[in-house]
Amino acid sequence: MSDTSLAPIRAPKVTMARTGLIGAALIVIGLVALFAGARFGLMLAIGLGFGVALEGLRFGFAGPWRAMILRREPAGILAQFLAIALVACVAIPLLTAHPEELSGAQAPIGWAMIGGAFVFGAAMQVVLGCGSGTLVNAGSGNPVGLLALPFFAIGSFAGAYHLIWWTGLGALPILTLRGIPGLAVTLAGLALLAGLFWALGKPGSRRVPTRYLVAALVLAALAIANLVVAGQPWGVVYGLGLWAAKGAVALGADLSGSAFWAASGSVERLRSSVLTDYTSLTDFGLIAGAFGVAAWRRGGLAQPLPSYPARAWVATVIAGLLLGYSSRLAFGCNVGAFFSGIATGSLHGWVWFVAAFAGAFVGIRLRPLVGLEART
Amino acid sequence: MTRRLTASLALAGLVALIGADLMRSPPNPYHAPPVFALGSGVTAAGGFCGALPN
């Protein structure tokens, strides 16, 4: 009875709150466009789109890998392959036709890259959050994601600081698939992988739900927009490392001892506003977009915080540091290396996926040991 | 405690980060690049996690 009588009062409140969320997003995008530049406002809007899509459609990377490994449910991974294939269909021909204006997520395969991807795969299963996932989790109020995020940034800064030393351990030249033949090989590889995971999947769980298909389409459209607007693919961890590096410089740190941070391009970006850094803008959008969805949902922010033992929080801090450090050695996370690497024809993306997926088996075993879930 | 607290902390951290950076490195809209990189004729030069330093 009371619920019925209060409903007309609550409805306008909810509508006002939701209108406020949309209005706030539009105002912030407009302010960034006005005071930093239209391209940067557009990049923030694309980042917000990523955040809304990932949180709103409950799609991600770590969760589907876990579902495949633990329960042989391949739907999420198949949707990831679909999104990558859709981006590749546009990105690889565009990169071939406009090599000056656009750059791919192209990086060398090497020992540190493979080791980094393995560690990243393990750490992302410990906290159940990858590069984009940690940002989305933090924005939607997941305390594990919130605690992991600053340490992810510090790890990313430190990993970049040491990147050249690690790469010196041995790396191949950058190998890329270009043009229509490159696209054909990429699509064939994705189809083979999809077939393998489909075959390994449990019968009855192979159908990709509509929600995942929509997520794949939206993510692909946003990733293509990211490339067209920024001239580079969707990435996550560079921005996080930049925030920590800017913090270190503000505290008086001298980064001239790092071949990475002392390079001219890095120095320029350290001096520039974060509102002009593409990965920072999409990272801001991921956090804010996830917040917006959580606030939009009825009861989305009213969920009680979970209770974990102390060792779980210690593990979260360590996993956050490892996520950041390893993703720099691996030349990207699930977004920059796996998603954007494969979609823009870089062979390191394929190797990254194999190494990180192997690491995920370790992370899934570690997660209950550190108290982040009930032991089974 | 609910997620309202942690989500608000995340957003507050974001605002603090951008605010602190704005005080040290304010953007200059007069140096902004064209809206779209594609078709701009300008070489891509943003920071990216897959790129080695130049």
Gist of the model:
The complex is a heterodimer of chains A (376) and B (54). Chain A contains 16 helices and two strands. Chain A has 376 residues and is an all-alpha fold.
* Fraction of residues in helix of chain B: 40-55%
Averaged pLDDT of chain B: 93
Note the total helix count of chain B.
Answer: 1
The overall pLDDT average of chain A reads 95
Query: What is the topology, as strand order, of the major beta sheet of chain A?
Result: 1-2
- The assigned structural class of chain B equals mainly alpha
From the structure provided, what is the oligomeric state, counting identical versus distinct chains?
Answer: heterodimer
Overview of the molecule:
The complex is a heterodimer of chains A (376) and B (54). Chain A is mainly α and 376 residues long. Chain A has one domain (63-276, 307-369). Chain A has helices spanning 2-35, 38-56, 62-71, 75-97, 111-126, 131-139, 143-161, 163-167, 179-200, 210-230, 237-250, 264-271, 278-296, 310-329, 334-343, 347-369, and strands at residues 108-110, 171-174. Chain A has a two-stranded antiparallel sheet. In chain A, helix 4 (75-97) crosses helix 15 (334-343) and helix 5 packs parallel to helix 16 (347-369). Chain B is elongated, with a radius of gyration of 17 Å. Chains A and B meet through helix 2, helix 7, helix 8, helix 10 and helix 11 of A and helix 1 of B.
